[in-house]
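Action item from last meeting closed. Structure (892 res):
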């Protein structure tokens, strides 16, 4: 059960090939001839059998051809029969190499595969390569060089091109997978396998699109948590909705949303083919980035300035030498060296000078990465400088990148640097680009660790009132809320709004204005007019009753002339905000296909499309994510002291973003939203205008199925008493539980660790910790029991610390109807009912998720666990694949 379910596909021990009649090349297709030859030439150690789909013989005779993997490369009309034969000889996986199979035929092939329990890669793909296993089950070219990089591509042509490029650039692969349209085993499942593949250290992906956003992000998050993932996606051009009813819907393109999704998944996106492998090489190095400050060491000002210009363009920071570093380093450099911004070592710099500068940067806490630039000089040996750099790199724990400019004279130096595994580039801009990818990886890994709950720690919203309001509008067969309704919905989530009253005639308008106090703003109220200013439907700073009357009448006449078909409810009156130093922002929400709801933030006002200053983030949000969203917007700089205005509290915007996140999580009916303008000054934030679009929600199997990223399932948190007094909390695991989990594992007895992990390990590796703590709550669950210990100090005061005392876990099987469980309890707390509670609770979660069966393997020697399983009603059977285990199963 420890093996990944795609092991028979990607790591088979035996292969059967259906490629036409053996020895009759004319009867075989182009793909059939190609894959037959490449499989033979690859040197696969296991048995390979070539079968004809129309072969005669009994099923018993066919059974002798049983294999893990069936490779099928036949004409389209022969594919179903070949897949049927593969099922009858009990192949666990199949690969169909083909092109041009339409969706209907592909679905029929998927159905055959499901019937026989086959994991099917294809149709419409070029196959895959596993160089370490000597498997070339593809028609993408000769077997690639062995390496630690995995390539997954949704384009067959690009797969062939990359393999051809890699062979000339000494790039090796652990796995190469070509995925085409309509493949049963998709990108998400392939990533699932690569996340657990020990031969794969980093992954590059070329993709053109996805269908299931939740599953894709789930697999990508799990993979990027343990291995660097670099993505190149086609189709970067923004495509706003043609039927959008809000500013947000008009200006947010699908590519921006895809970028936001990759950030939350902890992956790095590159824009060109040239950047794909340089990014992968940098991220796969032994260095782990800790920030975006790059020190630049050079022997010429020009190349250094080019690097700084591109650094600024990318929004990265130049690490400037500290006074202490300057004082210590200058005596070791040539007389003409300058350390003002760049570390310009001058033309006279030799190997010893470069080595001193690199060592100084390595020891400076203000430096996150180092770029070393060398320009050829007549009296300096570039190879000697390269060797000095390699020696200096041995004690560096920061990213080190190099740029040896020129060609023939520095070729040998580049070879020395490449051999040491240090990234080297031909131009300063390319090197800075690579560091930008490293910095993005660091930032995105921080975003990956965030698992916000659906509701923040702020005051609880009026969910019942919000649902009543939405249902009443939908009952009237309307989708666009009026300004009054929109603000009422915001108020239900405690978002500060301006007092707004609807006037149905000019006399009402004058009365309302006098009650609110002048100056006031008048705005047309109509569900059919998305942008009021376009029809002269907004007038600000109205100072008296006469003006209110005249403006009301003129506005109604003007709007009826410009939009005669629009339903007009009247004119809203609201007091001007009176915020002398107010900054205008906007907060919005759009619904993307396929990622679902997306929250936007940016500069507000009537020209937000023109200003084009915005950032997007996928919900749910917490304070950390809200802060990062605000920081990505240029106009956020105005929140400080700006042009005589006092600083405005960023926390006010953060709170509103959290409230909008709550709205998105709780209300699947939301489609678009604009809060514009949101006026922020030293006293706080105020929503002046709002527009919300809703629609009937699609039936949801689970509460948050409309979100691409599942919120932290805080609803499963419980408190339970300990038999001897005190209590413990049972809750879903969190990413920051890693240290507590490591302490828990270390404290277990050798026997308990062996019973749980079937290994003599004494602690969990970093990838295992990441795998066990950052989980996809949709496909798996881990419940941890946390006990608060009170320890008396020397001063008599008690110190309270949290301690993990038990973990239960399930992982859904590929069929999504059953799951596999595991359980371990601190030896100190055995016999106190903790194991029973953990198992009962994890079964409740699995049942709630719609799973129907829970299974687990228990060592025969583990009598205590087997007894617990029997008491909980599990069926205990012999596990035929390994007599050391018992299979424990229960219907949920």
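Sequence:
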């Amino acid at each position: 059960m420890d093996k990944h379910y795609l092991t028979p596909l990607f790591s088979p021990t035996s292969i059967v090939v259906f490629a036409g009649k053996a020895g009759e090349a004319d009867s075989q297709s182009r793909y059939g001839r190609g894959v037959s030859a490449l499989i033979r030439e690859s040197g696969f150690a296991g048995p390979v059998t070539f079968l004809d789909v129309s072969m005669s013989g009994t099923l018993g005779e066919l059974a002798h051809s049983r294999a893990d993997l069936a490779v099928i490369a036949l004409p389209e009309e022969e594919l179903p029969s070949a897949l049927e034969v593969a099922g009858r000889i009990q192949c666990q996986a199949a690969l169909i190499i083909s092109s041009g199979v339409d969706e209907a035929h592909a679905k029929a092939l998927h159905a055959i595969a499901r019937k026989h329990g086959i994991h099917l890669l294809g149709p419409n793909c070029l196959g895959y390569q596993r160089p370490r296993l000597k498997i070339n089950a593809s028609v993408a070219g000769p077997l690639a060089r062995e390496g630690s990089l995995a390539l997954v591509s949704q384009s067959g042509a690009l797969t062939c091109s990359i393999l051809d490029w890699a062979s000339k650039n000494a790039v090796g692969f652990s796995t190469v997978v070509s995925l085409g349209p309509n493949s049963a085993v998709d990108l998400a499942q392939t990533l699932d396998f690569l996340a657990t593949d020990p031969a794969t250290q980093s992954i590059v992906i070329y993709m053109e699109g996805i269908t299931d956003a939740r599953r894709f992000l789930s697999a990508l998050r799990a993979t990027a948590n343990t291995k660097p993932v670099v993505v190149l996606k086609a189709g970067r051009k923004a495509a706003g909705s043609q039927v959008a009813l809000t500013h947000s819907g008009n200006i947010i393109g699908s590519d921006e949303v895809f970028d936001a999704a990759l950030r939350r998944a902890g992956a790095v996106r590159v824009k060109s083919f040239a950047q794909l492998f340089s990014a992968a090489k940098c991220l796969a190095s032994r260095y782990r980035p800790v920030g975006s400050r790059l020190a630049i060491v050079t022997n010429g000002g020009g190349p250094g300035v080019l690097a700084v210009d591109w650094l600024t363009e990318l929004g990265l920071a130049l690490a400037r030498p500290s006074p202490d570093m300057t004082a210590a380093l200058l005596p070791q450099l040539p007389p003409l060296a300058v350390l003002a911004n760049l570390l310009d070592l001058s033309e006279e710099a030799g190997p010893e000078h470069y080595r001193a500068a690199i060592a100084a940067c390595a020891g400076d806490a203000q430096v996150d990465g180092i770029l070393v630039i060398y320009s050829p000089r007549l009296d300096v040996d570039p190879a000697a400088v390269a060797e000095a750099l390699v020696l200096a790199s041995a004690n560096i724990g920061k990213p080190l990148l190099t740029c040896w400019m020129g060609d023939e004279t520095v070729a040998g130096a580049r070879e020395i640097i490449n051999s040491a595994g240090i990234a080297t580039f031909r131009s300063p801009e390319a090197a800075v680009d690579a560091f930008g990818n490293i910095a993005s990886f660091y930032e995105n890994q921080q975003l990956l660790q965030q698992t916000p709950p659906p509701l923040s720690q702020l005051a609880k919203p009026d969910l019942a009132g919000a649902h009543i309001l939405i249902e009443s509008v939908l009952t009237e067969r309307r989708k666009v809320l009026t300004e009054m309704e929109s603000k009422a919905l915001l108020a239900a989530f405690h978002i500060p709004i301006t007092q707004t009253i609807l006037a149905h005639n000019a006399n009402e308008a004058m009365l309302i204005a006098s009650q609110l106090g002048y100056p006031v703003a008048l705005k047309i109220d109509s569900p059919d007019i998305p942008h009021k200013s376009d029809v002269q439907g907004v007038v600000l700073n109205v100072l008296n009753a006469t003006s209110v009357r005249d403006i009301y009448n003129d506005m109604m006449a003007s709007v009826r002339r410009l939009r005669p078909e629009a339903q007009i409810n009247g004119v809203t009156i609201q007091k001007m905000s009176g915020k002398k130093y107010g900054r205008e922002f906007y907060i919005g929400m759009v619904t993307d296909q396929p990622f679902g709801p997306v929250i936007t933030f940016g500069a507000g006002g009537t020209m937000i499309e023109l200003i084009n200053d915005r950032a997007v983030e996928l919900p749910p949000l917490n304070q950390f994510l809200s802060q990062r969203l605000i920081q990505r917007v240029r106009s956020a700089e105005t929140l400080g002291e700006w042009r005589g205005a006092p600083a405005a509290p960023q926390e006010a915007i953060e709170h509103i973003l959290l409230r909008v996140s709550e709205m998105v999580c709780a209300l699947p009916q939301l489609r678009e939203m604009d809060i514009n303008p949101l006026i922020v000054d030293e006293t706080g934030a105020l929503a002046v205008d709002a527009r919300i679009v809703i629609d009937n929600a699609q039936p949801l199997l689970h509460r948050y199925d409309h979100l691409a990223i599942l919120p932290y399932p805080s609803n499963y948190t419980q408190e339970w008493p300990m038999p001897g007094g005190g209590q413990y909390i049972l809750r879903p695991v969190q990413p920051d539980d890693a240290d507590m989990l490591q302490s828990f594992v270390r404290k277990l007895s050798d026997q308990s660790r062996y019973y749980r992990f079937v290994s003599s390990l004494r602690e969990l590796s970093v990838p295992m910790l990441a795998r066990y703590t950052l989980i996809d709550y949709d496909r798996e669950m881990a419940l941890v029991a946390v006990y608060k210990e009170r320890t008396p100090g020397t001063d008599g005061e008690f110190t309270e610390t949290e301690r993990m005392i038990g973990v239960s876990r399930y992982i859904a099987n590929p069929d999504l109807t059953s799951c596999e469980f595991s359980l371990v309890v601190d030896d100190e707390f055995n016999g106190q009912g903790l194991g029973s509670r953990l198992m009962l609770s994890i079964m409740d979660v699995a049942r709630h998720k719609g799973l129907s069966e829970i299974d687990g393997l228990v060592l025969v020697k583990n009598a205590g666990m087997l007894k617990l399983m029997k008491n909980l009603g599990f069926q205990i059977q012999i596990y035929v694949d390994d007599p050391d285990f018992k299979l424990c199963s229960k219907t949920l």
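Note appended to the action item: Residues 302 and 873 are 75 Å apart (CA to CA).
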